[in-house]
């Protein structure tokens, strides 16, 4: 795979330089390390043989197949969940579950392929438990009011 990319990149660079255009559409500068002189890509002169033969090897793509499974049970935080998935070609199958805050367990089973797309089925097990709301009558508290008292008015001596 890397050999194919390097070969194609070298061909593109050689052809674009021979035509006097930037390599693969990128403008840039090449600096000669010995002299410090800079040239643009379009001014580089690289001899290109007219009968260059490029060998392109087909890229090998591995057949997609995998499987994994994991689970978490954390007593400190109460986090409980797990997941399992497997793939064989273009078909992916899996399932994950988690413990919801109301105490029920949610399980999602899914299948995905090129023909039917992604399909998931959600199911719940257990009973939802919600905290009891206790209605409390408002408490009436009598607080003595303090009334501000003022002294005698100031007389003005004008």
Strand content: 25-35%
The side-by-side strand order for the widest beta sheet comes to 3-4-5-6-7
Helix/strand class: mainly beta
Question: Distance between termini?
Answer: 105 Å
Mean pLDDT: 76
> Which term fits the overall shape?
elongated
Q: Give the low-confidence spans.
A: 17-26, 29-33
* SSE sequence, one letter per element: HEEEEEEE
The amount of helix comes to: 10-25%
The total count of helices amounts to 1
Sheet having the most strands: 5 strands, antiparallel
Say how many strands there are. Answer: 7
Radius of gyration: 38 Å
Throw out a few tags for this protein.
158 residues, single chain, 5-stranded antiparallel β-sheet, 11% helix, mainly beta
